[in-house]
Design goal:
CATH topology of the largest domain in chain B: Four Helix Bundle (Hemerythrin (Met), subunit A)
Strand order of the largest sheet of chain A: 3-2-1-4
Number of domains of chain A: 2
Radius of gyration of chain A: 20 Å
Oligomer: heterodimer
Strand order of the largest sheet of chain B: 3-2-1-4
Shape of chain B: globular
Number of helices of chain A: 12
Number of helices of chain B: 8
CATH class of the largest domain in chain B: Mainly Alpha
Shape of chain A: globular
Chain lengths: ~260, ~230
Amino acid sequence: MTATVRDYDVVLDGLLEDIRRMSDVVSSVLLFGSMARGDVLPGHSDMMDVYIFLKPDTFDDKTRFLSSLEVMAEACEKIANASPGPFHPFFYWKEGDPVPATFHLDLAVHSKVINGQDKRSGIETTPSSISVAKTAFFEMRRLGSPLMTYLKKDDLTEQERQAVFNLLLAIKRDLPMLALMVVNTWVVQKESIQALTNEFPDINVEVLNTIAMLQHDESARQDSALLRQTFRDAMVFVEDLNDRLIAEVSGHFVSAESAS
Amino acid sequence: MAEATVQAFTSRVIDRLEDQLESIIGYSHPFTNGGLIVIFKNDAGFMPDLIAEVYECGPPNITLYCLRRAELFQIFGLGVFGWPNPLEEKPLLAYRVRLGGEVIYGRDIRNEIAIDGNPIVLLESQLQRCKQFIRNWALDQFRRRNYAGITKEMDRQSKYLMATALLAKGEWDVPTENIPNLFESLLEDTETKLIWTDINSLPTNEQDASRESAAEAVWLFEQVLQSIERHAQ
Protein backbone atom coordinates (compact mmCIF):
# COMPACT_ATOMS: atom_id res chain seq x y z
CA MET A 1 0.00 0.00 0.00
CA THR A 2 1.33 3.45 -0.91
CA ALA A 3 1.73 5.85 1.98
CA THR A 4 0.09 9.26 1.86
CA VAL A 5 0.49 12.56 3.70
CA ARG A 6 -2.88 11.81 5.29
CA ASP A 7 -1.34 8.70 6.93
CA TYR A 8 1.19 10.95 8.65
CA ASP A 9 -1.56 13.28 9.86
CA VAL A 10 -3.56 10.36 11.27
CA VAL A 11 -0.57 9.14 13.31
CA LEU A 12 0.07 12.66 14.60
CA ASP A 13 -3.59 12.98 15.60
CA GLY A 14 -3.21 9.75 17.57
CA LEU A 15 -0.21 11.16 19.42
CA LEU A 16 -2.13 14.34 20.26
CA GLU A 17 -4.94 12.22 21.66
CA ASP A 18 -2.45 10.48 23.96
CA ILE A 19 -0.87 13.78 24.96
CA ARG A 20 -4.30 14.99 26.12
CA ARG A 21 -4.26 12.08 28.60
CA MET A 22 -1.27 13.70 30.31
CA SER A 23 -2.37 17.32 30.06
CA ASP A 24 -1.57 17.94 33.74
CA VAL A 25 2.18 17.51 33.10
CA VAL A 26 2.58 18.81 29.54
CA SER A 27 3.72 22.38 29.08
CA SER A 28 3.93 22.43 25.28
CA VAL A 29 4.47 20.16 22.31
CA LEU A 30 6.50 21.15 19.26
CA LEU A 31 6.42 19.54 15.84
CA PHE A 32 9.48 20.07 13.65
CA GLY A 33 10.97 18.56 10.50
CA SER A 34 9.10 17.75 7.30
CA MET A 35 5.63 17.59 8.89
CA ALA A 36 6.06 21.07 10.37
CA ARG A 37 7.41 22.39 7.07
CA GLY A 38 4.65 20.76 5.05
CA ASP A 39 7.02 18.88 2.73
CA VAL A 40 6.42 15.28 3.82
CA LEU A 41 7.63 12.69 1.32
CA PRO A 42 5.23 9.82 2.00
CA GLY A 43 6.99 6.58 2.84
CA HIS A 44 10.39 8.28 3.21
CA SER A 45 9.89 11.11 5.69
CA ASP A 46 10.54 9.85 9.18
CA MET A 47 8.41 10.31 12.22
CA MET A 48 8.04 11.35 14.97
CA ASP A 49 9.85 14.71 15.01
CA VAL A 50 8.17 15.94 18.16
CA TYR A 51 9.46 17.40 21.43
CA ILE A 52 7.12 17.04 24.40
CA PHE A 53 8.06 19.60 27.04
CA LEU A 54 7.05 18.48 30.50
CA LYS A 55 6.54 20.82 33.43
CA PRO A 56 9.72 20.84 35.56
CA ASP A 57 8.02 19.52 38.71
CA THR A 58 7.06 16.34 36.83
CA PHE A 59 10.66 15.22 37.30
CA ASP A 60 10.31 15.53 41.08
CA ASP A 61 6.98 13.75 41.42
CA LYS A 62 7.32 10.00 41.01
CA THR A 63 3.63 9.24 40.60
CA ARG A 64 3.08 11.85 37.90
CA PHE A 65 6.31 10.98 36.13
CA LEU A 66 5.54 7.25 35.99
CA SER A 67 2.02 7.89 34.87
CA SER A 68 3.20 10.13 31.99
CA LEU A 69 6.01 7.70 31.13
CA GLU A 70 3.43 4.94 30.63
CA VAL A 71 1.32 7.16 28.37
CA MET A 72 4.41 8.10 26.33
CA ALA A 73 5.53 4.47 26.04
CA GLU A 74 2.07 3.47 24.80
CA ALA A 75 2.02 6.38 22.36
CA CYS A 76 5.46 5.44 21.07
CA GLU A 77 4.29 1.89 20.40
CA LYS A 78 1.22 3.09 18.52
CA ILE A 79 3.33 5.38 16.33
CA ALA A 80 5.83 2.60 15.59
CA ASN A 81 3.01 0.27 14.55
CA ALA A 82 1.29 2.80 12.31
CA SER A 83 4.16 4.91 10.98
CA PRO A 84 3.99 5.25 7.18
CA GLY A 85 7.74 5.99 7.04
CA PRO A 86 10.94 5.32 9.03
CA PHE A 87 10.21 5.51 12.74
CA HIS A 88 12.09 6.98 15.65
CA PRO A 89 10.63 7.85 19.05
CA PHE A 90 9.69 11.41 19.91
CA PHE A 91 11.63 13.28 22.58
CA TYR A 92 10.50 14.34 26.01
CA TRP A 93 12.20 17.23 27.73
CA LYS A 94 12.07 19.23 30.94
CA GLU A 95 10.72 22.69 30.17
CA GLY A 96 13.51 25.23 30.63
CA ASP A 97 16.39 22.79 30.03
CA PRO A 98 18.68 23.89 27.17
CA VAL A 99 18.16 21.82 24.00
CA PRO A 100 20.92 20.33 21.80
CA ALA A 101 22.35 22.91 19.39
CA THR A 102 21.66 20.63 16.41
CA PHE A 103 17.92 20.96 17.17
CA HIS A 104 17.88 24.54 18.41
CA LEU A 105 16.86 26.36 15.23
CA ASP A 106 14.40 23.63 14.26
CA LEU A 107 12.68 23.95 17.63
CA ALA A 108 12.98 27.63 18.43
CA VAL A 109 12.18 29.00 14.97
CA HIS A 110 11.01 26.45 12.40
CA SER A 111 8.57 24.42 14.49
CA LYS A 112 4.84 24.34 15.08
CA VAL A 113 3.19 24.44 18.48
CA ILE A 114 0.73 21.56 18.36
CA ASN A 115 -0.28 21.50 22.01
CA GLY A 116 0.00 23.82 25.00
CA GLN A 117 1.60 27.23 25.16
CA ASP A 118 4.07 28.80 22.75
CA LYS A 119 7.25 29.11 24.81
CA ARG A 120 9.69 28.91 21.91
CA SER A 121 11.28 32.28 22.66
CA GLY A 122 12.61 30.77 25.90
CA ILE A 123 14.33 27.80 24.23
CA GLU A 124 18.10 27.98 24.62
CA THR A 125 21.15 25.87 23.96
CA THR A 126 24.62 25.73 25.58
CA PRO A 127 28.22 26.40 24.49
CA SER A 128 29.18 22.73 24.99
CA SER A 129 26.24 21.66 22.86
CA ILE A 130 27.38 24.06 20.16
CA SER A 131 30.80 22.38 20.33
CA VAL A 132 29.14 19.00 19.83
CA ALA A 133 27.22 20.34 16.85
CA LYS A 134 30.40 21.73 15.32
CA THR A 135 31.94 18.25 15.11
CA ALA A 136 28.77 16.38 14.14
CA PHE A 137 29.68 16.47 10.42
CA PHE A 138 32.79 14.39 11.10
CA GLU A 139 30.87 11.97 13.31
CA MET A 140 28.20 11.48 10.63
CA ARG A 141 30.90 10.81 8.06
CA ARG A 142 32.36 8.13 10.31
CA LEU A 143 29.00 6.47 10.99
CA GLY A 144 28.65 5.69 7.27
CA SER A 145 31.99 3.83 7.20
CA PRO A 146 30.67 0.23 7.31
CA LEU A 147 28.66 0.87 4.12
CA MET A 148 31.73 1.80 2.07
CA THR A 149 32.16 -1.84 1.02
CA TYR A 150 29.07 -1.37 -1.18
CA LEU A 151 31.06 1.08 -3.33
CA LYS A 152 32.78 -1.94 -4.84
CA LYS A 153 30.02 -4.52 -4.81
CA ASP A 154 28.59 -5.36 -8.24
CA ASP A 155 25.21 -6.76 -7.23
CA LEU A 156 23.52 -5.11 -4.31
CA THR A 157 20.75 -6.99 -2.55
CA GLU A 158 17.47 -5.22 -1.88
CA GLN A 159 18.50 -4.69 1.73
CA GLU A 160 21.85 -3.25 0.64
CA ARG A 161 20.20 -0.95 -1.90
CA GLN A 162 17.90 0.31 0.85
CA ALA A 163 20.86 0.91 3.17
CA VAL A 164 22.71 2.86 0.47
CA PHE A 165 19.59 4.88 -0.36
CA ASN A 166 19.05 5.72 3.31
CA LEU A 167 22.66 6.88 3.57
CA LEU A 168 22.21 9.03 0.45
CA LEU A 169 19.11 10.59 1.98
CA ALA A 170 21.01 11.36 5.17
CA ILE A 171 23.83 12.94 3.13
CA LYS A 172 21.38 15.20 1.31
CA ARG A 173 19.26 15.99 4.36
CA ASP A 174 21.85 16.42 7.10
CA LEU A 175 25.41 16.87 5.85
CA PRO A 176 25.11 20.34 4.28
CA MET A 177 23.58 21.66 7.51
CA LEU A 178 26.17 19.89 9.69
CA ALA A 179 29.02 21.10 7.47
CA LEU A 180 27.83 24.67 7.92
CA MET A 181 27.79 24.21 11.69
CA VAL A 182 31.53 23.41 11.53
CA VAL A 183 32.14 26.88 10.13
CA ASN A 184 29.70 28.43 12.59
CA THR A 185 26.91 29.07 10.10
CA TRP A 186 23.52 28.07 11.47
CA VAL A 187 20.65 27.34 9.13
CA VAL A 188 17.81 24.83 9.05
CA GLN A 189 17.88 21.83 6.73
CA LYS A 190 15.64 23.36 4.12
CA GLU A 191 17.99 26.30 3.56
CA SER A 192 21.22 24.37 3.97
CA ILE A 193 22.13 23.47 0.36
CA GLN A 194 21.78 27.06 -0.82
CA ALA A 195 23.73 28.26 2.20
CA LEU A 196 26.45 25.69 1.51
CA THR A 197 26.93 26.93 -2.03
CA ASN A 198 27.10 30.47 -0.67
CA GLU A 199 29.81 29.39 1.77
CA PHE A 200 31.75 27.31 -0.78
CA PRO A 201 30.80 28.78 -4.20
CA ASP A 202 32.83 26.27 -6.25
CA ILE A 203 31.60 23.11 -4.52
CA ASN A 204 29.82 20.64 -6.80
CA VAL A 205 26.42 19.76 -5.32
CA GLU A 206 25.09 18.09 -8.46
CA VAL A 207 24.86 14.72 -6.70
CA LEU A 208 22.29 16.16 -4.30
CA ASN A 209 19.99 16.69 -7.29
CA THR A 210 20.53 13.07 -8.33
CA ILE A 211 19.59 11.95 -4.82
CA ALA A 212 16.45 14.09 -5.03
CA MET A 213 15.63 12.37 -8.32
CA LEU A 214 16.08 8.94 -6.69
CA GLN A 215 13.72 10.00 -3.90
CA HIS A 216 10.94 10.38 -6.43
CA ASP A 217 11.79 7.48 -8.74
CA GLU A 218 11.39 4.10 -7.12
CA SER A 219 12.45 2.15 -10.21
CA ALA A 220 15.73 4.09 -10.40
CA ARG A 221 16.44 3.03 -6.82
CA GLN A 222 16.33 -0.61 -7.93
CA ASP A 223 19.15 -0.02 -10.40
CA SER A 224 22.27 -1.20 -8.56
CA ALA A 225 24.68 0.39 -11.04
CA LEU A 226 22.98 3.81 -10.85
CA LEU A 227 22.74 3.60 -7.07
CA ARG A 228 26.40 2.63 -6.74
CA GLN A 229 27.53 5.44 -9.06
CA THR A 230 25.40 7.95 -7.13
CA PHE A 231 26.88 6.61 -3.91
CA ARG A 232 30.41 7.13 -5.27
CA ASP A 233 29.56 10.65 -6.45
CA ALA A 234 28.06 11.38 -3.05
CA MET A 235 31.22 10.23 -1.31
CA VAL A 236 33.33 12.42 -3.61
CA PHE A 237 31.09 15.31 -2.50
CA VAL A 238 31.44 14.34 1.18
CA GLU A 239 35.22 14.00 0.96
CA ASP A 240 35.56 17.32 -0.89
CA LEU A 241 33.49 18.94 1.84
CA ASN A 242 35.49 17.17 4.53
CA ASP A 243 38.80 18.42 3.11
CA ARG A 244 37.51 21.97 2.97
CA LEU A 245 36.29 21.77 6.55
CA ILE A 246 39.54 20.25 7.80
CA ALA A 247 41.37 23.17 6.22
CA GLU A 248 38.96 25.61 7.91
CA VAL A 249 39.21 24.14 11.40
CA SER A 250 42.81 22.95 11.34
CA GLY A 251 44.31 23.70 14.71
CA HIS A 252 41.06 24.76 16.37
CA PHE A 253 40.62 21.44 18.12
CA VAL A 254 44.17 21.06 19.43
CA SER A 255 44.45 21.72 23.13
CA ALA A 256 47.30 23.64 24.66
CA GLU A 257 48.47 20.44 26.34
CA SER A 258 48.71 18.55 23.07
CA ALA A 259 50.30 21.43 21.25
CA SER A 260 53.07 21.81 23.80
CA MET B 1 38.83 -7.24 23.00
CA ALA B 2 39.49 -10.85 21.94
CA GLU B 3 43.19 -10.30 21.28
CA ALA B 4 43.84 -13.07 18.76
CA THR B 5 40.89 -12.04 16.58
CA VAL B 6 41.93 -8.41 16.66
CA GLN B 7 45.55 -9.32 15.84
CA ALA B 8 44.44 -11.42 12.89
CA PHE B 9 42.26 -8.58 11.60
CA THR B 10 45.05 -6.04 12.06
CA SER B 11 47.47 -8.28 10.15
CA ARG B 12 45.05 -8.47 7.24
CA VAL B 13 44.69 -4.67 7.20
CA ILE B 14 48.46 -4.18 7.27
CA ASP B 15 49.03 -6.75 4.48
CA ARG B 16 46.51 -5.00 2.28
CA LEU B 17 47.17 -1.33 3.01
CA GLU B 18 50.69 -1.07 4.40
CA ASP B 19 51.89 1.60 1.98
CA GLN B 20 48.97 3.88 2.89
CA LEU B 21 49.08 3.41 6.65
CA GLU B 22 50.68 5.70 9.17
CA SER B 23 49.76 3.85 12.33
CA ILE B 24 47.29 1.55 14.08
CA ILE B 25 46.48 2.13 17.75
CA GLY B 26 44.43 -0.28 19.85
CA TYR B 27 42.52 0.79 22.93
CA SER B 28 40.34 -0.77 25.58
CA HIS B 29 37.21 0.90 26.91
CA PRO B 30 35.47 -0.03 30.16
CA PHE B 31 31.99 0.22 28.63
CA THR B 32 32.56 -1.29 25.16
CA ASN B 33 34.67 -3.94 23.47
CA GLY B 34 37.32 -1.32 22.77
CA GLY B 35 38.55 -0.57 19.30
CA LEU B 36 41.22 0.39 16.81
CA ILE B 37 42.25 3.74 15.39
CA VAL B 38 43.44 3.06 11.85
CA ILE B 39 45.42 6.13 10.79
CA PHE B 40 46.23 6.72 7.14
CA LYS B 41 48.89 9.02 5.75
CA ASN B 42 47.68 12.51 4.89
CA ASP B 43 48.32 11.83 1.20
CA ALA B 44 46.64 8.41 1.20
CA GLY B 45 44.11 7.69 -1.54
CA PHE B 46 40.34 8.20 -1.63
CA MET B 47 39.27 7.52 1.96
CA PRO B 48 35.94 5.76 1.23
CA ASP B 49 37.84 3.17 -0.87
CA LEU B 50 40.44 2.70 1.86
CA ILE B 51 37.73 2.36 4.50
CA ALA B 52 35.99 -0.22 2.31
CA GLU B 53 39.23 -2.21 2.21
CA VAL B 54 39.49 -2.10 6.00
CA TYR B 55 35.94 -3.41 6.35
CA GLU B 56 36.59 -6.10 3.74
CA CYS B 57 39.23 -7.48 6.13
CA GLY B 58 36.38 -8.67 8.38
CA PRO B 59 36.59 -6.56 11.54
CA PRO B 60 35.65 -8.19 14.85
CA ASN B 61 32.97 -6.65 17.05
CA ILE B 62 34.95 -3.58 18.08
CA THR B 63 34.80 0.12 17.28
CA LEU B 64 36.78 1.27 14.25
CA TYR B 65 37.98 4.78 13.52
CA CYS B 66 39.56 5.20 10.09
CA LEU B 67 41.18 8.62 9.81
CA ARG B 68 43.98 10.44 8.11
CA ARG B 69 46.63 11.84 10.42
CA ALA B 70 45.33 15.37 9.89
CA GLU B 71 41.95 14.23 11.16
CA LEU B 72 43.14 12.97 14.54
CA PHE B 73 41.43 15.88 16.27
CA GLN B 74 38.20 13.95 15.76
CA ILE B 75 39.22 11.52 18.52
CA PHE B 76 39.22 14.45 20.92
CA GLY B 77 35.69 15.53 19.97
CA LEU B 78 32.72 15.39 22.30
CA GLY B 79 30.99 12.74 20.19
CA VAL B 80 27.72 12.46 18.44
CA PHE B 81 24.28 11.70 19.82
CA GLY B 82 24.06 8.03 19.25
CA TRP B 83 20.52 6.71 18.85
CA PRO B 84 19.89 3.81 18.24
CA ASN B 85 23.23 2.84 19.83
CA PRO B 86 22.90 4.25 23.31
CA LEU B 87 26.56 4.42 24.30
CA GLU B 88 29.00 6.93 22.83
CA GLU B 89 32.69 6.16 23.57
CA LYS B 90 33.82 9.74 23.20
CA PRO B 91 33.82 11.11 26.75
CA LEU B 92 36.55 8.62 27.67
CA LEU B 93 38.03 7.92 24.24
CA ALA B 94 40.86 10.46 24.06
CA TYR B 95 42.08 9.33 27.50
CA ARG B 96 41.87 5.64 26.55
CA VAL B 97 43.87 6.22 23.36
CA ARG B 98 46.43 8.76 24.50
CA LEU B 99 47.13 7.39 27.97
CA GLY B 100 46.20 3.72 27.66
CA GLY B 101 46.39 2.94 23.96
CA GLU B 102 48.78 0.44 22.42
CA VAL B 103 50.72 1.05 19.22
CA ILE B 104 50.03 -2.01 17.08
CA TYR B 105 51.63 -0.78 13.90
CA GLY B 106 53.69 2.15 12.68
CA ARG B 107 54.36 5.50 14.23
CA ASP B 108 53.44 6.31 17.82
CA ILE B 109 51.07 9.24 17.36
CA ARG B 110 49.38 8.96 20.75
CA ASN B 111 50.71 12.32 21.92
CA GLU B 112 48.94 13.95 18.97
CA ILE B 113 45.60 13.03 20.56
CA ALA B 114 44.43 16.05 22.52
CA ILE B 115 42.80 15.77 25.92
CA ASP B 116 40.29 18.38 26.96
CA GLY B 117 41.64 20.70 29.60
CA ASN B 118 38.13 21.10 31.00
CA PRO B 119 36.49 17.67 31.53
CA ILE B 120 33.38 19.34 32.98
CA VAL B 121 32.40 20.04 29.37
CA LEU B 122 32.48 16.30 28.69
CA LEU B 123 30.11 15.70 31.59
CA GLU B 124 27.81 18.50 30.50
CA SER B 125 27.54 17.13 26.97
CA GLN B 126 27.12 13.56 28.22
CA LEU B 127 24.20 14.70 30.40
CA GLN B 128 22.56 16.34 27.41
CA ARG B 129 23.21 13.24 25.31
CA CYS B 130 21.37 11.13 27.92
CA LYS B 131 18.41 13.49 27.95
CA GLN B 132 18.24 13.52 24.18
CA PHE B 133 18.70 9.86 23.40
CA ILE B 134 18.58 7.63 26.45
CA ARG B 135 15.09 8.82 27.28
CA ASN B 136 13.68 7.98 23.88
CA TRP B 137 15.82 4.86 23.60
CA ALA B 138 13.98 3.65 26.71
CA LEU B 139 10.58 4.56 25.21
CA ASP B 140 11.46 2.40 22.21
CA GLN B 141 12.51 -0.51 24.44
CA PHE B 142 9.16 -0.51 26.26
CA ARG B 143 7.44 -1.38 22.98
CA ARG B 144 10.00 -4.15 22.46
CA ARG B 145 9.20 -5.47 25.98
CA ASN B 146 12.93 -5.30 26.75
CA TYR B 147 12.36 -4.60 30.43
CA ALA B 148 15.55 -6.25 31.68
CA GLY B 149 17.50 -4.39 29.01
CA ILE B 150 16.12 -1.03 30.12
CA THR B 151 17.24 -1.60 33.71
CA LYS B 152 20.68 -2.79 32.61
CA GLU B 153 21.09 0.27 30.39
CA MET B 154 20.00 2.72 33.10
CA ASP B 155 22.56 1.09 35.40
CA ARG B 156 25.28 1.30 32.75
CA GLN B 157 24.48 4.88 31.79
CA SER B 158 24.50 5.95 35.45
CA LYS B 159 27.95 4.44 35.91
CA TYR B 160 29.11 6.01 32.64
CA LEU B 161 28.02 9.43 33.90
CA MET B 162 29.89 8.84 37.15
CA ALA B 163 32.98 7.77 35.18
CA THR B 164 32.71 10.93 33.09
CA ALA B 165 32.42 13.06 36.23
CA LEU B 166 35.54 11.34 37.61
CA LEU B 167 37.60 12.73 34.71
CA ALA B 168 37.54 16.07 36.50
CA LYS B 169 39.41 14.34 39.33
CA GLY B 170 42.03 12.94 36.98
CA GLU B 171 40.56 9.42 37.11
CA TRP B 172 40.23 7.97 33.63
CA ASP B 173 41.06 4.30 34.20
CA VAL B 174 38.70 3.08 36.90
CA PRO B 175 37.41 -0.52 36.65
CA THR B 176 33.63 -0.42 36.18
CA GLU B 177 32.95 -2.17 39.49
CA ASN B 178 34.87 0.53 41.39
CA ILE B 179 33.27 3.55 39.71
CA PRO B 180 30.36 4.15 42.15
CA ASN B 181 32.52 4.01 45.28
CA LEU B 182 35.29 6.15 43.86
CA PHE B 183 32.71 8.62 42.58
CA GLU B 184 31.13 8.81 46.03
CA SER B 185 34.42 9.48 47.76
CA LEU B 186 36.12 11.81 45.27
CA LEU B 187 33.04 13.80 44.27
CA GLU B 188 31.66 13.68 47.83
CA ASP B 189 28.30 12.67 46.46
CA THR B 190 26.55 9.93 48.39
CA GLU B 191 23.13 10.87 47.01
CA THR B 192 23.90 9.89 43.41
CA LYS B 193 25.57 6.71 44.53
CA LEU B 194 22.53 5.73 46.57
CA ILE B 195 20.20 6.32 43.62
CA TRP B 196 22.46 4.14 41.47
CA THR B 197 22.37 1.48 44.22
CA ASP B 198 18.58 1.44 43.90
CA ILE B 199 18.84 0.97 40.12
CA ASN B 200 21.43 -1.74 40.64
CA SER B 201 19.10 -3.63 42.98
CA LEU B 202 16.29 -3.89 40.40
CA PRO B 203 15.86 -7.24 38.62
CA THR B 204 17.82 -7.65 35.40
CA ASN B 205 16.91 -11.20 34.47
CA GLU B 206 14.13 -11.87 31.99
CA GLN B 207 11.97 -13.79 34.48
CA ASP B 208 11.84 -11.16 37.21
CA ALA B 209 12.09 -7.94 35.22
CA SER B 210 8.73 -6.29 34.55
CA ARG B 211 7.29 -3.17 32.95
CA GLU B 212 7.02 -1.71 36.47
CA SER B 213 10.65 -2.43 37.37
CA ALA B 214 11.83 -0.97 34.06
CA ALA B 215 9.74 2.18 34.65
CA GLU B 216 11.23 2.43 38.14
CA ALA B 217 14.72 2.27 36.57
CA VAL B 218 13.84 5.11 34.18
CA TRP B 219 12.49 7.20 37.08
CA LEU B 220 15.66 6.57 39.11
CA PHE B 221 17.82 7.42 36.11
CA GLU B 222 16.05 10.78 35.88
CA GLN B 223 17.04 11.31 39.51
CA VAL B 224 20.66 10.42 38.66
CA LEU B 225 20.60 13.02 35.88
CA GLN B 226 19.32 15.70 38.25
CA SER B 227 21.70 14.74 41.02
CA ILE B 228 24.84 14.53 38.90
CA GLU B 229 24.02 17.74 37.05
CA ARG B 230 25.35 19.80 39.93
CA HIS B 231 28.89 18.57 39.12
CA ALA B 232 28.60 20.09 35.64
CA GLN B 233 27.86 23.58 36.94
